[in-house]
Structures are given as C-alpha cells and as structure tokens.
C-alpha cells in the first residue's frame, strides 16, 4: 500500500514543483547565493520526506508536556526550567531510541503509527533560544509544512512569542496552528477572553486569523497514564489528535506539501527582487553620474580648444608689431641722407636696427612667452580634468568596497605631465621664425644699405663725371643743354636706387614675416589640441570602461530580474493549482 508521501508524488503538480525547485537551485547557483541554494536543495529533499511539523513555544508554556500527551508517553523531558536545549526530531521507529546528530540536534525514534507520515520537531523555548539554535531552527522552519505554536493560558502571546510568530509569518509564510495550553487553570469565561485576545492580537500584529485549539497537556498525560476517559475528554487532547493525525488528509497534506516550498520560494523571490530593483536603480544612478561627468569633461575640452585660439590670435600680433617697427626704421634710416650720415657715425645701421627693432619687438622672446603661457594653460587644465575624473572613480570604488561589491575601471595613479616635452617640441619647431634673428637681419639690412649706397655713389659719380667730361669736350660751343639734361637724368637715377632697395628689402622681409605666423600658429594649436585630445581620450577611455562595466552589471541584474520574475510566475501558478486541489 502506498504511503501518503508516495501518493503525493504521483500528482502532476508535485513533479512541476520539483522541476521549479531544480530551476531555482540552478538560478541561485549561477548568482552565487550558496545559502539559498542549500535551502532549495533541502526543500526538494524534504518534499519526499514525511511531513515536518514543528512544535514551538516558550519553555514554560507546557510544550514538552503537550508533545508527550500527543505521543501518549513521556518521550521528552518535562520540568519547571528549560529542559530542551536541543532541536529534537521525533520520528517513527520500532523501538524507542535516541541518538545525537550534533551539539544542537538529536533524533528520537518512537513506535507511534502516525509518525510514519509525520516528523515532529521539538524546539527550545522561544525565550531561551541561543544564536546557534536560532540558525538551526530557521533551517527547519523553511522545511516545515505546519507549525504547532503552544502558548499558555497564564501568559498568552508573550513578547517573545509574538516576535517568533511574526518571524514565522512574515519571513516564511508558514501555516500556524495555535495550541492554547493549561486550560485547566482558567474557567470558561476566562478562556473565551483569552481566545478573543489571541485572535485580535494575531490579526492586528500579524495580519491573520489563527486557528486555535485548546488543551490541557497535564490532564491529557494523566488521563493516558490512568486510562481516565472523562479526564481525557476534559483535556481536549482528542481534538488536537484528530486535527493533526486525521484531518490532515491527502488533499490537505498535498496542499501543505506543495505550498511549503512554493511559499519559501516566493518569499525568497520577493526579497531578492527588491534587492535587484535597488541594484538597477543604483546602477542607473552611477551611469547617469558618469555621463554627467563625461559631459562636463567634453564641455571643458571645447572650452580649452576655444581658449587656445586666443594664442593663435596673439601670434600675428607679435609679427604685426615687428612689421611696424621695421617699417618705421626703414622709413627713417634707409634714406640717402641717413645712409651717408651713417658712413661717418660710430653706430652702424645694423646695430641701430637691432636696437630699435628687435630690442623692442623681438619675436623670439614674445613667441617664447606665448608658448610658455599656452603650454602652462593646457597642462594645468588637463591635470585638473584628470584629477577630477580620478577622484570620482576612486571615490566610487572606495564606496563600493565598503558595501562589499566589486568594481572595475580606474585611472593611473600617476599623471603624465608632458609640459617640458611639449614646450621643447614647440620651441624646436619655432626655428622657422628664428630666421628673423636680430643679428642676421641686421647683417642683411647693412648689406642692403651698403649695396644701395655704393650704387648711389657710383651713379652719382658717373653723373658728375659725365657732366664734367661732356662740358669740357663741348666747351667751344658753350653750355650744352642736352649734356646737362643727361647728367641730371643719371643723377636722378642714383637717388631712386636707395628707395628701391628699401622697398625691395621691406617687401622681401615682410613676405617672410607674413608667412611665419600662420604656419607657426597652426602648428601651435595643433600640438596643444593633440595634448588636450590625448588626455581627454585617456580619461574618456577609463570613464567609458567604468561606465561600460556598470552597464554590463546592470544588464546582468536586469537579466537576473527577468529570470526571477519567470520563476516567481511559475511559483504563483503552481500555488494556485495547489490551492485548487485542496
């Protein structure tokens, strides 16, 4: 003949619950929750074991006497002080035997037919449970199909009892049958008041209306020992026996057997679902925070690139001032009168050129200043950006480590300051404008001035010689107008030579000067932008790595949440099917 458990296993819903438990076990294994995985395995094993019924209550509630009365023998110890410091499993056995399983767990076998289908779990008093015992009790609570909660008529629903009931109901959602013991100490009126008190408080504090059975465990034990039928009826132990051993028929036991793991799963799912939702919200906050920081960095990049255009505009001004000084100098000094005067002066034209032009508007020193300022601006601001991003990521990582979560993404602890390298590169490239060196340009203007003056003197000498020669040759005919005109023309040509030399020198020098600003300013801004882009890219890569890691974590949590929702829907559907069968 099949046992009740064997009959339950024949039901389709039983198989489906078993499959759900296996899928849930795999899920918790994947997410690394070993504690819940072990509990799921226990639930799967427990489904094929006899019914677990837990007896709980304060040590002075008469719990041990009640168990003895239910079994019809003094199986567990009874006393005025806590006598049960272990969790005791009461199972069926051909003979009475007891063996210790661990320091806080033992097994007693007893030849009671009802124990073939039921494992009765006796627990320490709720007001004397130690830390180690509380973990063990919790392990058994999630496996129990029914809780027999014994409370005493002389102290119904004490604080520790209410806390234990709330724990049972809110965390595990277990079926609870309240046994009101020691009814022999109260009259009917007092008992009715106590029952009403229990019902109201259970509904008010715990949110459910309990089923309450009354009993006098002391009278029940005496009646079974003496065979006193009237005393046994008065103790009301028969009503409890009938409910526990007879009214829990196959349909009810099927519901309990199936609903126990399903309630456990739904409770765990709800708790984990809340945790996953909080994680998704947290990851969303992190991602938005990173995106805001990236936007700030991008804005700063644009601001820096726009600012360095100022330096690009400063470079033509340097050469513009130089051209003004050159123009002024040439206009005043590159004249016939001044060049002739220079021949007899101590200070030569190249020395005046160097003093009056390059000592006032020297492009070398001006451009070096612009390079230094620009490089200082770029390196100072890129360092500031790097430190801002570094501090943000380090702060996030430190905070997550305190919360016990791992994270990835970091910036190098050392900022690569390339200020000197950049300055050297720009100054090396500035050799293009070093062709405007004061000494070289002084030598050029001196050479031009000497050449122009020499040409002037030669032509003027030629004009004078021509005039004198032709005048002597044709002196017999008197002054010759043609000869005079010819001499004047030659002399005039001489006076044109120096202005022409000045214009040629000015045009050639200005051409070189005008070509330099655009070439160098383009190079300057290009090199500075490269530095900005390189630093921003490095920061961006680290920020993107951190953000992408957060994205991946969030997507994984969302995937887990979706999988969890699917499991929860299956559990709810099976819970409805289990309820319909009952």
Description:
- It is built from 17 helices and eight strands.
- The longest helix is centred in the last third of the chain and has 101 residues, at 481-581.
- It folds into two domains: 50-248, P-loop containing nucleotide triphosphate hydrolases (Rossmann fold, 3-Layer(aba) Sandwich); 289-446 and 514-570.
- The protein is 71% helix and 8% strand.
- Strand 6, helix 6 and strand 7 (175-181) form a beta-alpha-beta unit.
- By secondary structure, the chain is an alpha/beta fold.
- Strands 3-4-2-5-1-6-7-8 form an eight-stranded mixed β-sheet, sandwiched between helices.
Give the topology.
Layout: H1 4-9, H2 12-30, H3 34-46, E1 51-57, H4 63-71, E2 87-92, E3 97-102, E4 105-110, E5 118-122, H5 131-141, E6 146-152, H6 159-172, E7 175-181, H7 188-206, E8 211-214, H8 217-226, H9 229-235, H10 237-247, H11 250-333, H12 336-344, H13 349-358, H14 363-403, H15 419-429, H16 438-473, H17 481-581
Parallel strand pairs: 1-5, 1-6, 2-4, 6-7, 7-8
Antiparallel strand pairs: 2-5, 3-4
Helix pairs in contact: 2-3, 2-11, 2-17, 3-11, 4-8, 8-9, 11-13, 11-14, 11-17, 13-16, 14-15, 14-17, 16-17
Q: Would you count the extended β strands for me? A: 8
Number of domains: 2
Q: Look at the helices and sheets and give the structural class.
A: alpha/beta
Q: Tell me the β content.
A: 5-15%
Helix percentage range: over 70%
Termini Cα gap: 23 Å
Low-confidence stretches: 79-83
Number of helices: 17
């Amino acid at each position: 003949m099949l046992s009740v458990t064997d009959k339950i296993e024949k039901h389709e819903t039983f198989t489906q619950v078993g499959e759900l438990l296996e899928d849930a076990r795999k899920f918790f294994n994947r997410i690394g929750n070993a504690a819940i995985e072990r509990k799921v395995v226990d639930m799967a094993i427990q489904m094929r074991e006899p019914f677990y019924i837990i007896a709980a209550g304060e040590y002075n509630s008469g719990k041990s006497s009640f168990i003895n009365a239910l079994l019809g023998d003094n199986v567990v110890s009874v006393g005025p002080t806590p006598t049960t410091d272990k969790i005791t499993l009461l199972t069926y056995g051909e003979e009475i035997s007891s063996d210790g399983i661990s320091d806080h767990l033992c097994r007693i076998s007893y030849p009671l037919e009802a124990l073939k289908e039921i494992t009765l779990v006796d627990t320490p008093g709720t007001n004397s449970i130690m830390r180690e015992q509380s973990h063990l009790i919790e392990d058994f609570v999630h496996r129990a199909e029914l809780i027999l909660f014994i409370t005493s008529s002389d102290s119904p629903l004490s604080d520790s009892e209410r806390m234990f009931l709330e724990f049972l109901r809110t965390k595990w959602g277990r079926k609870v049958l309240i046994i009101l013991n020691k009814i022999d100490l109260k009259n009917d009126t007092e008992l009715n008041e106590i029952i009403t008190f229990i019902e109201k408080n259970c509904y008010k504090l715990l949110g459910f209306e309990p089923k309450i059975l009354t009993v006098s465990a002391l009278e029940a034990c005496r009646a079974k020992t003496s065979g006193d039928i009237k005393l046994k009826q008065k103790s009301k132990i028969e009503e409890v026996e009938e409910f526990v051993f007879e009214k829990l028929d196959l349909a009810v036991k099927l519901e309990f057997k199936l609903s126990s793991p399903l309630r456990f799963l739904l409770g765990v799912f709800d708790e984990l679902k809340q945790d996953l939702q909080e994680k998704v919200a947290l990851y969303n906050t992190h991602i938005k925070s990173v995106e805001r920081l990236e936007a700030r960095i991008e804005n700063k990049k644009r601001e820096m690139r726009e600012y360095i255009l100022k330096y690009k505009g400063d470079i033509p001004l340097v050469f513009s001032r130089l051209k003004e000084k050159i123009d002024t100098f040439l206009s005043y000094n590159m004249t016939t009168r001044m060049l002739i005067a220079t021949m007899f002066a101590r200070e030569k034209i190249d020395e005046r050129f160097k003093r009056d032009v390059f000592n006032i508007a020297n492009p070398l020193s001006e451009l070096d200043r612009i390079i230094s300022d620009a490089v200082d601006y770029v390196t100072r601001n890129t360092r500031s950006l790097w430190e801002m991003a570094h501090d943000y990521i380090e702060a996030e990582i430190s905070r997550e480590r305190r919360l016990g979560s791992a994270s990835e993404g970091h910036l190098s602890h050392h900022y690569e300051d390339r200020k000197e390298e950049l300055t050297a590169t720009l100054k090396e490239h500035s050799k293009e404008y070093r062709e405007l060196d004061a000494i070289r340009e002084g030598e050029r203007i001196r050479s031009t001035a000497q050449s122009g003056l020499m040409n002037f003197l030669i032509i003027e000498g030629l004009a004078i010689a021509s005039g004198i020669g032709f005048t002597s040759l044709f002196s017999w005919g008197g002054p010759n107008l043609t000869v005079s005109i010819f001499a004047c023309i030659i002399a005039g040509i001489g006076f044109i030579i120096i202005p022409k030399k000045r214009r040629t020198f000015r045009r050639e020098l200005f051409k070189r000067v005008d070509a330099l600003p655009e070439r160098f300013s383009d190079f300057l801004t290009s090199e500075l932008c490269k530095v900005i882009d390189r630093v921003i890219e490095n920061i961006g890569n680290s920020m993107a790595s951190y953000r992408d890691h957060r994205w991946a974590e969030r997507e994984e949590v969302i995937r887990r949440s979706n999988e969890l929702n699917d499991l929860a829907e299956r559990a709810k559907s099976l819970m409805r099917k289990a309820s319909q069968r009952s």
